[in-house]
């Protein structure tokens, strides 16, 4: 009643059993009370024991349940992330197949979807890049120009087969300085590295009998920073050859025209200076002027014909032509020239010769030119034999003489314009040096071919083949 609670720990014995007892004051609305508790210690212990066991087992169950739940929860979150991680590794190794399965619509599902989209985009981009790369590689491998790429240090990083081919090497791993020195180009890495954007530097080099033009250019990265140098090797041998031929042609035409013009001028001047008084001299000089004018006419005629052939302005009068008869007519026409030189000119027809589709006048011009050459370049008393025959789909005429022949080194050039083995002899015989080149153009326009074989001192054989079916 003094307001002090009892001692909770104090035990009291009663009938040989221990009890907890405890008193506690309590103020309620209807007055002050004292609550008194008494409890059997044994029963209390059993209760406590039960209670503890219950709490323990509940705790165990709770822990196990928590662990299981935690495991299941962690699995649902980590498995897709681990899967994405594995897939990311595969993608990094270039395996883009089989996208990840989207199992939920939550953030993990969204992540999986985004990952799949990223992998697909990456794959598409890689396919595009690799097909671009393949395209560039194919172009580089099959282009006729040579390409060598050097990095900024001047080390070679790429060379295409054409470049090796042009340089005449099986393998070429020159760095920039060695490449420049070896072909005496006199260009340094620094000099080329300071080239302005898009500008190029050119150098012409000679490798054996070929002429190569080397263009240098810089290649840059996306930020326009120089990454290296590209050397493009362009074979200009053919261009040079054409240029040389063009120059030679102009020189030849001028020379060929100047010679008769000089003699016409000098003979005319001599006549004007008084030689006209002497009739005999006048006739002789005038006949020289006449023949020189004839030579100029022939030359100009040949040049005009060549120009028409070159510009494809030739009017071809194609018709059915009896080939054997045409050749025999030509032989007849030139029989007189051969006889004048006491040469034996014969023709033989081997087998049945079919008609061909051709321009009669032009083919006649070809045969007469070759036959005329055979007569011109065969000594008096020589022999010229003409064979007319056919193979599977061609007719041919072979004109063989036992004349002066053509040296081996000149054989490949006699079809060139103005090419003559012996200039003086040809001119003396009235030749322009254009006959065979015109003949070849005409034969090739008929889809035929012309070939020559010869041995100096033994004779020459020229064969013209023309297709039977045009
Ligand atoms: P040309 O008007 O000088 O005869 P061509 O073009 O007809 O010109 O012939 C070119 C050159 O080929 C001749 O100058 C000659 O040196 C040589 N040639 C052609 N045919 C013969 C042949 N049958 N025998 C020897 N040389 C020949």
Question: Can you describe what's shown?
Answer:
The protein is of the alpha+beta class. It has 5 domains: 91 residues, no CATH class; 42 residues; 93 residues, PAS domain (Beta-Lactamase, 2-Layer Sandwich); 71 residues, Helix Hairpins, CATH 1.10.287.130; 150 residues, Histidine kinase-like ATPase, C-terminal domain (Heat Shock Protein 90), CATH 3.30.565.10. The chain contains 12 helices and 15 strands. The strands form 4 sheets. It has a 5-stranded antiparallel beta sheet. It has a 5-stranded mixed beta sheet with strand order 10-12-13-15-14. A 3-stranded antiparallel beta sheet has the order 1-2-3. Helix 6 packs antiparallel against helix 7, helix 7 runs parallel beside helix 12 and helix 9 packs antiparallel against helix 12. The longest helix is centred in the first third of the chain and has 52 residues. 19% of the residues are buried. Adenosine-5'-diphosphate (ADP) binds next to helix 9 and helix 12. Adenosine-5'-diphosphate binds next to helix 9 and helix 12.
- Unreliable spans are none
- End-to-end distance: 146 Å
Q: Total strand count, please? A: 15
Give the CATH superfamily of the largest domain.
Answer: Histidine kinase-like ATPase, C-terminal domain
**CATH architecture descriptor text of the largest domain:** 2-Layer Sandwich
Radius of gyration from the alpha-carbon trace, in angstroms: 54 Å
Characterize the largest beta sheet: strand count, sense, and whether it forms a barrel.
5 strands, antiparallel
Write out the strand line-up for the largest beta sheet, numbering strands in chain order. 5-4-8-7-6
Percent helix range: 40-55%
Distinct ligands, ions and cofactors found in the model: adenosine-5'-diphosphate
Query: How many structural domains does the protein architecture include?
Result: 5
Q: Spell the H/E element sequence.
A: EEEHHEEHHHEEEHHEHEEHEEHHHEE
What multimeric state do the chains show? Answer: single chain
Q: What best-fitting shape do the alpha-carbon axes yield?
A: rod-shaped
**Structural class, judged by helices and strands?**
alpha+beta
Tally of DSSP helical segments: 12
Task: Average the pLDDT over all residues and give the rounded result.
Answer: 89
CATH class of the largest domain: Alpha Beta
């Amino acid at each position: 009643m003094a307001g002090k609670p009892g001692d909770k720990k104090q035990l009291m014995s009663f009938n040989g059993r221990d009890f907890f007892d405890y008193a506690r004051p309590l103020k309620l609305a209807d007055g002050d009370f004292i609550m008194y508790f008494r409890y059997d210690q044994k029963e209390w212990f059993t209760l406590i024991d039960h209670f503890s066991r219950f709490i323990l087992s509940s705790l165990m169950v709770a822990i196990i349940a928590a662990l299981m739940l935690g495991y299941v929860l962690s699995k649902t979150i980590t498995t897709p992330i681990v899967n994405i991680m594995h897939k990311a590794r595969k993608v990094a190794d270039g395996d883009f197949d089989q996208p990840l399965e989207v199992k939920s619509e939550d953030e993990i599902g969204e992540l999986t979807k985004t990952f799949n989209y990223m992998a697909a985009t990456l794959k598409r981009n890689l396919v595009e890049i690799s097909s671009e790369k393949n395209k560039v590689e194919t172009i580089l491998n099959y282009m006729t120009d040579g390409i060598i790429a050097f990095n900024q240090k001047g080390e070679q990083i790429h060379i295409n087969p054409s470049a090796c081919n042009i340089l005449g090497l099986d393998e070429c791993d020159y760095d920039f300085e060695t490449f420049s020195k070896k072909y005496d180009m006199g260009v340094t890495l620094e000099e080329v590295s300071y080239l302005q954007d898009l500008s190029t530097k050119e150098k012409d080099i000679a490798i054996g009998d070929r002429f190569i033009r080397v263009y240098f250019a810089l290649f840059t990265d996306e930020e326009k920073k120089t990454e290296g140098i590209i050397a493009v090797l362009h074979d200009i041998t053919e261009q040079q050859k054409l240029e040389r031929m063009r120059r030679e042609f102009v020189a030849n035409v001028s020379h060929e025209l100047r010679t008769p013009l000089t003699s016409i001028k000098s003979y005319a001047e001599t006549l004007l200076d008084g030689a006209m008084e002497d009739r005999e001299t006048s006739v002789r000089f005038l006949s020289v002027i006449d023949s020189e004018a004839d030579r100029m006419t022939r030359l100009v005629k040949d040049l005009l014909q060549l120009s028409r052939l070159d510009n494809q302005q030739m009017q071809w009068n194609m018709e059915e032509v009896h080939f054997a008869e045409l050749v025999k007519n030509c032989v007849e026409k030139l029989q007189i020239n051969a006889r004048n030189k006491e040469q034996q000119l014969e023709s033989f027809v081997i087998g049945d010769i079919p008609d061909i589709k051709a321009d009669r006048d032009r083919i006649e011009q070809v045969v007469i030119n070759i036959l005329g050459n055979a007569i011109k370049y065969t000594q008096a008393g020589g022999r010229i034999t003409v064979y007319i025959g056919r193979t599977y789909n061609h007719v041919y005429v072979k004109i063989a003489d036992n004349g002066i022949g053509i040296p081996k080194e000149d054989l490949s050039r006699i079809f060139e314009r103005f090419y003559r083995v012996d200039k003086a002899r040809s001119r003396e015989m009235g030749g322009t040096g254009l006959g065979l080149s015109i003949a070849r153009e005409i034969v090739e326009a008929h889809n035929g071919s012309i070939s020559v074989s010869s041995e100096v001192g033994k004779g020459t054989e020229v064969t013209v083949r023309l297709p039977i079916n045009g």
